[in-house]
Design goal:
Layout: E1 6-13, H1 17-28, E2 33-36, E3 53-55, H2 71-82, H3 88-107, E4 112-113, E5 126-129, H4 132-146, E6 150-152, E7 156-163, E8 166-174, E9 177-188, H5 197-204, E10 212-213, H6 222-229, E11 234-235, E12 241-247, E13 268-270, H7 285-288, H8 292-297, E14 303-309, E15 324-326, H9 329-336, H10 340-353, E16 389-401, E17 404-405, E18 412-415, E19 418-425, H11 443-463
Parallel strand pairs: 1-2, 1-9, 2-6, 9-19, 10-16
Antiparallel strand pairs: 3-5, 4-5, 7-8, 8-9, 11-17, 12-16, 13-14, 14-16, 15-16, 18-19
Helix pairs in contact: 1-4, 1-11, 2-3, 3-11, 9-10
Pfam family, one: FAD_binding_2
GO molecular function: oxidoreductase activity
Keywords: FAD, Flavoprotein, Oxidoreductase
């Protein structure tokens, strides 16, 4: 152990959106705040640097958002994707608080831009950051610096010492040394455990070794495991996570938002045996993109393949990787390692099941569907007939896991239903308190912003 332990009013563990919201809020309340960020400075920000929007309730036009998006509609969207597996009281708290968050974000340096087009259909519900998540993260760090927040990078927290009903001290490693601080209040905002593929495999089985990790490689769940081992109340299923189907050529870690594929609604998706396995047109993409990671995970070798034709190529935002291209379906199958005869039969069966396509509308549910085929395609079902043909490989890309710290409406953690007097949690590390399964585009940023602000306020009040 090096140096005499420093004393801080509020220690925030993590360096992404939730951590920054907590740190800025606590500093504005007069607290002396330190952020312990595991990542090096160029990679600060956790998964937040890969985000691009924030889902926001509003009663009328607000910033870049058009029309209105009510609490009840927002909750209905959430209940649909989670199949009702959510803490409704905490969900409503997040939703109601989101409206005041947008102007607060602007006051703290975030700038917004008009919504992106294509399959997103989010102009009414989601506010897009100018410069993406990296722009938001950098703006918040600038504001935090002006507020006097101290940041330690490459500061990997290893242990939070429980002392009765409170956290007594925090140990972390930096520059090859173990250091200790003594905080009056602690906010844990250090994400899930998704970057620890051994932990994923314990939950999912060997299939998890084939998963890709969309976000930061630094979210390994070390703080989460340390607290759970000490009896801090947990929430969530270790198998539940925000997992999407991403380009199979993405790197193992940190591929980010650009590796996501938005072409599924205009495609058919097959497994390695060239068989379709789910309705590609079930709903608009922001409400269904997050189920496809789990769907692909259930297929042989945890892979899938998107097949589209020329008339659909311009209907979605492109991936960072160019699609595979061929003049014939058989040629495409050969390049993708699929059985050509089987792919041809699958496409022919799908084409024969397509009906009248005159009502096709790429940005809304259009009811252009198949008949007499399983699985059906309930929207955007057009025959795949126009060469050249294009394909993408799909792999499961995990964004964050839902096993986490259970919190109350004040973002406070507990042991045996007794509050830990100086411990709060925000962001992905407590998102399982609201997300039992499934995901809604932009909602992770809502959770992080709302509960980060709550945790920062409560932590500062305790310290003061």
């Amino acid at each position: 152990m090096s140096k005499t332990p420093e004393t801080w009013d509020v220690a925030v563990i993590g360096g992404g959106n939730a951590a920054l919201c907590a740190a800025m809020t606590a500093a504005e309340a007069g607290a002396r705040v330190i952020i312990l960020e595991t990542a090096p400075k160029p990679y600060r920000g956790g998964n937040s640097r890969h985000t691009r929007n924030f889902r926001c309730m509003h009663h009328g036009p607000l910033g870049p958002l058009v029309d209105s998006y009510t609490e009840e509609e927002y909750l209905a969207d959430l209940m649909k994707v989670t199949d009702g597996k959510t803490d409704v009281a905490l969900a409503r708290l997040a939703i109601r608080s989101s409206e005041e968050c947008l102007p607060w974000m602007q006051d703290h340096g975030v700038r917004f831009q008009p919504s992106l087009s294509g399959t997103l259909s989010l102009a009414r519900t989601n506010a897009f950051f100018l410069g993406g998540g990296k722009g938001l993260v950098n703006a918040y760090y600038r504001t935090a610096d002006r507020l006097g927040v101290h940041v330690e990078y490459e500061a990997a927290v290893t242990h939070l010492e429980m002392d009765g009903d409170r956290i007594g001290h925090i140990d972390y490693t930096q520059d090859g040394q173990t250091r200790r601080i003594i905080p009056k209040s602690v906010v844990v905002a250090s994400g899930g455990f998704q970057a620890d593929t051994d932990w994923l495999a314990r939950a999912w089985g060997p299939a998890a070794k084939n998963f890709l990790i969309r976000g930061t490689p630094y979210n390994r769940g070390i703080v989460l495991a340390d607290l759970l081992d000490q009896g801090v109340e947990q929430v969530g299923d270790p198998k539940q996570c925000h997992a999407v189907a991403i380009d199979g050529r993405a790197p193992k870690y940190d591929g980010g938002i650009v590796t996501r594929l938005d072409c599924v609604p205009f495609s058919i998706v097959v497994n390695k045996n060239a068989e379709r396995f789910y309705d590609e047109g079930e709903d608009v993409w922001p409400k269904r993109y997050a189920i496809w990671g789990r769907l692909v995970a259930a297929q042989p070798d945890q892979v899938g393949y998107v097949i589209i034709d020329a008339k659909s190529l311009e209907l979605f935002m492109p991936s960072v990787f160019l699609p595979i291209k061929a003049d014939t379906l058989e040629g495409l199958a050969g390049q993708m390692g699929l059985p050509p005869d089987r792919l041809r039969a699958t496409v022919d069966d799908f084409n024969a099941a397509c009906g009248d396509t005159s009502g096709f509308h790429p940005t809304e549910l259009d009811g252009v569907s198949t008949t007499g085929i399983t699985p059906p395609k309930t929207n955007w079902a057009r025959p795949i007939t126009e060469p050249p043909f294009y394909g993408y490989s799909l792999r499961t890309g995990v964004t964050f896991t839902y096993l986490g710290l259970k919190v109350d409406e004040n973002a406070q953690c507990s042991v045996g239903n007794q509050p830990i007097t100086n411990l709060w949690a925000a962001g992905e590390t407590m998102a399982g308190s609201i997300l039992g399964q499934g995901y809604l585009a932009g909602f992770g940023m809502t959770i992080g912003t709302v509960f980060g602000r709550i945790a920062g306020k409560e932590a500062a009040a305790h310290a003061n």
